[in-house]
């Protein structure tokens, strides 16, 4: 029976074989990889990866798709974690000694940002991540200071990861086709993130970009004095999008020095 994509789960199933092969080439799987896929859907990417990877883990919320996966794949090839990826503890996936998780997925557009922040908690356990996301989101993730798309998502994810937009995927590669272009992003955890308290950095960045048209002195009024902003190496009349990651970290460390 044909599975009907469900809007509430943000389902758009990738079916273009050329795109599937391009993603697989970018991931470059090896047989012993500790590979976990978020939202396998109709298993097009799963099938592609299982041609190389000996055993895979998948996290799937849709019960009908879970039943379909259970019917089509043996447990020695595929471990299915039925549940919400936003709540899933990726640290529970068994990983061979000396290895780290490799995470892949066509992430639902409606939960992409919260899911990326959830996954960031597990960055020390991860070798790399390759995701299909809305092109606009990937552009925000990889944006550099001075860009109109540079913002909270850029700063917080760049603190944790080195990232690159690999290639764009058109709507017609999916069923049903989304209304926007998609893109593949590679995310490799930074070995040693700049030392700072994450919650404090998040608070500073959130306040800074909540009024991004104002100068940083006004955005951060009540949190920092102008002297503190200058001490962090920032021009007080710069706008939030002109300020780099290291400078935001410096501000966070003024509030709460890194342990």
Automatic annotation (TrEMBL):
It catalyses: adenosine(1518)/adenosine(1519) in 16S rRNA + 4 S-adenosyl-L-methionine = N(6)-dimethyladenosine(1518)/N(6)-dimethyladenosine(1519) in 16S rRNA + 4 S-adenosyl-L-homocysteine + 4 H(+). It is found in: Cytoplasm. Keywords: Cytoplasm, Methyltransferase, RNA-binding, rRNA processing, S-adenosyl-L-methionine, Transferase. Its EC number is 2.1.1.182. It comes from the Bacteria. GO terms for molecular function: 16S rRNA (adenine(1518)-N(6)/adenine(1519)-N(6))-dimethyltransferase activity; RNA binding. S-adenosyl-L-methionine binds at residues 12, 14, 39, 60, 84, 106. NCBIfam families: ksgA. This is Ribosomal RNA small subunit methyltransferase A. It comes from Rugamonas brunnea. The lineage of its organism: Bacteria, Pseudomonadati, Pseudomonadota, Betaproteobacteria, Burkholderiales.
């Amino acid at each position: 029976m044909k599975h009907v994509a469900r809007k509430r789960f943000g389902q758009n199933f990738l079916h273009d074989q050329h795109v599937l092969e391009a993603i697989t080439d970018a991931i470059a799987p090896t047989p012993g990889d500790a590979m976990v896929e978020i939202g396998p859907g109709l298993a097009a990417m799963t099938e592609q990866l299982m041609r190389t990877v000996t055993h895979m883990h998948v996290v799937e919320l849709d019960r009908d798709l879970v039943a379909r996966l259970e019917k089509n794949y043996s447990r020695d090839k595929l471990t299915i974690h039925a549940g919400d990826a936003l709540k899933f503890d990726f640290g529970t996936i068994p990983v061979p000694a000396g290895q780290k998780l490799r995470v892949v997925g066509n992430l639902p557009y409606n939960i992409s940002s919260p899911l990326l922040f959830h996954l960031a908690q597990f960055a020390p356990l991860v070798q790399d991540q390759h995701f299909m996301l809305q092109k606009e989101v990937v552009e925000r993730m990889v944006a550099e200071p001075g860009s109109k798309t540079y913002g909270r998502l850029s700063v917080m994810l760049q603190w944790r990861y080195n990232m690159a937009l690999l290639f764009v995927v058109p709507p017609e590669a999916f069923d049903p086709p989304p209304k926007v272009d998609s893109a593949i992003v590679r995310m490799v955890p930074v070995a040693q993130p700049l030392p700072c308290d994450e919650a404090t950095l998040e608070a500073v960045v959130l306040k800074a970009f909540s009024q991004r048209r104002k100068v940083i002195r006004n955005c951060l009024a009540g949190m920092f004095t102008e002297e503190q902003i200058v001490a962090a190496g920032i021009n007080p009349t710069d706008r939030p999008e002109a300020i780099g990651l290291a400078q935001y970290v410096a501000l966070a460390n003024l509030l709460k020095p890194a342990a």
